[in-house]
Amino acid sequence: MIPKIMTVVPYKDQSTSKKEQVAQMFDNISPKYDLLNRVLSMGIDISWRKKAIKMLEQERPKLILDVATGTADFALEALSLNPDKIIGVDISEGMLALGKEKIKKMGLEDKIELQMGDSEKLLFDDDTFDAVIVSFGVRNFENLEKGLQDICRVLKKGGTLIVLEFSQPQGTVFRNLYHFYSKYILPTIGRLISKDNAAYTYLPESVKAFPYGKEFLAIMGKVGFVKTEAKELTLGISSIYKGKKA
User: Within 71-195, where are the H helices?
Assistant: First the structure.
């Protein structure tokens, strides 16, 4: 049985939708986003992305969609697969602006294209992409099933989805340490650097509410993915999920 997912929003005093609030939050923190990622994860997020992309090596995808691309870190890592093209979409103009600047400086505009895009209403034809990748983005979908369904729609038959997302450690001692870090240290550092009081309180709350492991695989299966698998990273702090379009 797939549990009901609790909706967590960044700004609890606002009546706007989760989608609007998430876009606002990322616009607010975008100038410090990459720095905060490195600081708060102690750089481990770089190795997580590498491991996730490595799971696509055998597929050799030529056209890749990076959903919730942010500042394009995952798209840039996916260049190691030597695709013809990567298209990144995101709902935050602030994050996309930084991503575009990064790509331009690296001279990669012919390989990576970034554009505004809603994960639940992707502006692409059915059966378009060889692979879709998402890093730390599905947790922010307003409707998780709808977003995954649309990702499945734009994938070619036999195409692969790779999702990198936070999960929750299982070992008691490490889980308690992680929860202490998430509840007290992470929001404090995030608030000091980003100047957004809500953003890094939202992060641990959204992780706690998010279905992970077998529950997330069950949702993938429900919307049309087969041969699904999950791989835990760093004692369960994050996980890689893989599935193919039937």
Answer: 73-78, 93-105, 144-154, 172-180, 186-194
End-to-end CA gap in the chain: 21
* Residues 51, 231: Cα–Cα separation, whole Å: 10
Give the separation between CA 7 and CA 130, rounded to whole angstroms. Answer: 31
Q: Does domain 18-245 have CATH number 3.40.50.150?
A: yes
User: Which pLDDT score, from 0 to 100, does residue 39 have?
Assistant: 82
To the nearest 10 degrees (0 to 180), the angle between helices 33-41 and 186-194 is: 160
65 three-state secondary structure: strand
User: What is the predicted pLDDT for the residue at 36?
Assistant: 84
Q: Say how many CA atoms lie within 13 Å of 14 toward its Cβ.
A: 14
Three-class DSSP category at 116 = strand
Confidence of residue 172 (pLDDT cuts 50, 70, 90): confident
Rounded CA gap, 194 and 15, in Å?
A: 23
Which residue, 204, 164, 198, 161, is CA-closest to 182? 204
The structure tokens listed for 91 are: 């709902």
Q: At 214, which amino acid appears?
A: K
This prediction has a pTM of 0.94
- Residues 63, 61: Cα–Cα separation, whole Å: 6
3-state secondary structure of 212: coil
Q: Map tokens 């835990």 to a residue.
A: 232
The two structure tokens encoding residue 205: 């709350």
